[in-house]
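User: Structure tokens for this complex, please. No commentary.
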Amino acid sequence: MSPFPCILVPLDGSRVAARSLGCATWLAARLGSRLHILSATPQERPAREELARLQVPEAHWPLVTLHQAPAYPEDAILAAVVRHDVSLVVMSAVGETAEAATAAAADSAGVVGHVPRAVLERSEVPVLLLPPAYRETLPWERLLVPVSGEPAGDEALALAVRLANALALEVHVAHVADADTGDESLAARARYADAIHHEYPSQLEELVTRALPHCGPAQTGCIADIALCRGDVAAELLGLIERKRVSMLVTGWHGRLSPGHARVLKRLIRAITSPVLLVKRPLRTPFRVKVGEEIER
Amino acid sequence: MSEITGSAALGFDAVLFDLDGVVTRTAELHAAAWAELFDDFLSRRLGPAGEPFRPFDPAGDYLTYVDGKPRYAGVRSFLAARGITLPEGDPTDRAEAETVHGLGGRKDALFMNRLRRDGVQVFASTVEVIRALRERGVKTAVVTSSRNGREVLRAADLEALFDARIDGLDAQALGLAGKPHPDPFLKAAELLDVAPGRAVVIEDSVSGVEAGCRGGFGLVVGVDRGGNRDALAAHGADVVVADLGELDVAGLDARLREKRESVVAWQIEQEGFDPAREHAMESAFTVGNGYLGVRGTLDTPLAGSQGDLFIAGVYDRKHPERPYSELEFLGGGRGDYPYSELVSAPFPFRLRLAVDGQPLDLAGPHWRVHRRVLDLRRGILHGHAVYETEAARRTVVRTRRCASLDDLHLLLQEVTVCLENHSGTVELDASLADPDLAVNHPHLTPREAGSADPALDVQRFTTQASAVEICLAARTSLAGRDTSAVRWRVPGTIGETLTFHRYVAIYTSRDLADPRSAATERVLALRGEDFDRLLVAHTTRWRRIWEGADVRVSGSPATEQALRFNAYHLATAADRDPRVSVGARALTGRAYEGHVFWDVEIFKLPLYLHTWPDVARTLLLYRHHTLDGARRRARELGHRGACYAWESTVTGDDVTPTTIRLKTTGKEIPIFTGVQQIHVTAGVAHAVWRYWEATRDHDFLRDVGVEILAETARFWASRCAPDGRRYHIRGVVGPDEYHHSVDDNAYTNWLARFNLERAVEAVAWMTRDSPRAWDALAERLTLTRDEPAAWAGIARELYCPGPDAQGVIEQFAGFFDLGDYPLPREERFKAPISRLFDWDQINRLKLIKQADVLMLLHLFPEAFPHEVVAANYRYYEPITDHGSSLSPGIHAAVAARLGLRDDAERYWRESLWLDLSNRMGNSALGVHPACMGATWQALVFGFLGVRFGDGGPVPAPEAATRLPSRWRAVSLALAWRGRTYRIAVAREEEP
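Assistant:
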């Protein structure tokens, strides 16, 4: 089953936003996905004319449902996500305002525009974000997924593996122990390392397997390697992206871009030239183990 | 003196009541309204080819399909049972509409008509209980699926009796799923500001009882107004009464406390399902019997489940292509040694289960309830899952499994499938074949899969380098049928329960020459009806185990539960086979590759010794069995005698790698422990002596113990380096593994001296007690007459660091001169990865991984006065980051001895709940039996301060004032010299 049966591309009419169409149509064609395009245009045109204007290859038109309106603010985009049962949003980190050369109009980090930020923060489905320095490189060949044992990272890895299997890609996994924050444990919850030569390889393995409970060897065969690094997280990831010639970064995140949040992610978006697939933690299924305080409170 | 009043004196703070059938007598009105609705509906559906009219049964159908459920769920459930599907419609549907919502609306109107006509009657006994509860300060709430709840309460003039109310309208407004989902009860508890575990649910419907159970409420009381007792109990009611008059406030409190102590504290229950936690739960729920261990993987495993079967002693060459870690960590130093890692065999409880082709597993979207319960008392893992398709077809699957303690080669599994409200074909595939064998179990070469006999499944393998043959034979039967089969397709009718029994027999070529014949003959000799008998034999063995092992902690069922969990895993870890010992993660996970470390003798053995002494004996026999390997290792290191492997498997040769290399960074990290952590040798000798002290097992000492003591003493005699008159031990790693190549590690030297002294003593004993045996041994070992005297001389002159002017013992020569390291709080209990990367830098700092000097003080409590213990605790505790799971237990023990109650409790909790707590970061890789042993030691030698004398074990006089908060008393049994003594300490506050 396709990881993204329905893809949505919101366009604000700017040239920079329109770049996302190339990636989105390629992806939809490869996955057989339905592609909804929200085209902000002052004047509605016949669909064929508008698709041609947007330079969507005619071979892909059967996949496309085109929507036109004078503007698509964030509420309209998010409503379209729900209405069309969208599974992936593809959009540029900056749009019309950035095109007008106003970095100040973007968020405080200067990397994500107002509308993309709102969509990123509020969307319940993954968002494929094209960074300001995006350079289209198709077809994709390799994905990089940072993991730390956090649920959002687990979800990102699971999604990356599904995507890799659907598109015959390689997945590279990395854990970077953050030397800046001092949070250098191997896994988010790991506490002990009785014998390091046993513990670290096993924990690294568990970092991957815990994220893929529904994957057997046939699915996980796409994982090419796991890197264990230590240092500045963004710098290490950027180094890996370059060395491994990564096509897309797939990463979990907590859903907030306001000042003080997503420090590493903002640095990555600012510097990276490949797209970033942002994945939030899944809804928790009910789970409890009735021990300790649970039975004695 | 003031009397304790209010709910503070009770074990609960709130009681949540269902309305209809519990508080009010509206159940009859509801049943009559449902009957009127459905009878009208069913009779109108009759056509020329229609089924004969079968009316709604106001008793059976009401209780089974609609009672307690939200209205529309009730409509769907009953219609599904009659094979009828209607459009869903929506709440705006008119009452005439033939939709789920239309029928639901019509039922509501019929009910309201009857309510207005007949009025509301209440159960006086219930109202009396509610008033009594409120007088005691207990909060009360009413939780009903009825959308007319408020109206009914008003009509009965009961509104003032409840602090919170959740009815069907509230549930809709708040987006709460209806019963059997626990949401309405949980919301009510939230409104009352009471934890579910401190609240009681009282319900008369099956769905309400199920909701109470799923919500984790402290007690669920079922009220059987007629014919529903078994169903209420089956769905989880802790108590079933005919009327609440049977239970007053004190009765409720007694039942809740009884449940906590007799049920909850004897089980580990998981409610719900979190795929990311699954591997950790698999470790915790392992069933085993020492001969084998099977991880607690789901009966219908997920693709990513780690359903391993481990058989003690079956190792193979390290496989070079494990899936992930080898991609980054390149281990080395194992060569072609054919016993490098414990072999994982295929999951023997694997099932594939479906109804009408619809899989029943947790990978799909149809599971509604999932619960697993490890029954610690009986060594049985229970599973319970409810599946519900979009058409409201509910199927309940219950499973039981165990690794028989009565027949170590036998696994028992039972599966019951109940088609609760539908008919269908149940499909069970009980094949043992792992579709991904090559990847999941790379050490195994398949030799045979399946069987010519359709009743039998045989899977036979050989390990690749060690050439051990493993055979699993299985037979599955259906209750009531004479046949057995691997795959079943059985038509089931509505309400029918199908019960399957599976036996799996496992033998290896280590057990006997023909494991295939043994396995097949074993299962072919069993019939389906033997299951209960076999289960009784198994549980009887467990009862005997608990006679010696159970620790009662009055006032803290959670502590009892955790201690039992630990004892369960230690009991299932050890075989009675002297060729095997207990690996670092026992038979519960792949981590540590099944290697045997120093922790067997130092951390686990004391529990075995004073609980099941025969197990302690077997573990020491393993060290005797591997003595030749230890001799080889001593020679390899350029010494005499026997030096035990730091990491040991089958032969006693050391399997510790010498380096690991990180591929990404190219960084090579040396591993010093294999060559330098030689204190394991003295640890074995120490355990031999402790065993002898505790059992006076002369045969053991004569036939086994003296040889171990002598050969290890020989090693130390050649390892200790003379320097003038004194001897030193140089270039070692102590228990604190952050420092390598150190000289005169206090722990190592003290234990080596103990080893030398006890060897001298043992030789003297044997010379005196069994001169002929001694002569034979001396000849075999080519022990000269003057060797023991030389050992005594070395022991006298061996430098053993003592307390300095401040009372602190230097961990090793030069430790005090190392650089200071301000240990951040967040690095405690959470070793940063720099410990791996910056190993050499850490070697130069005053930062230690785990109890080292404190370990010494713990092992020799009589050797050091209180002041010295206190001084060392004050010095070393703040510079320890507890990078090892072995550390907290020992710190708890030492802190308790010192009377540092806060520290002792903090470390105790850390150790006690290591595998059970939500912070068990690496329990997915297997449980931590050594930590469990340390926890037990902290209790016995720390909090209780038990010392053994000729009269048996005696707790410290101050033990009564050391007990952790909440504990009222503690009691346990301790074995000593052929007798079992019961120790009991009741809490006393310090004056």
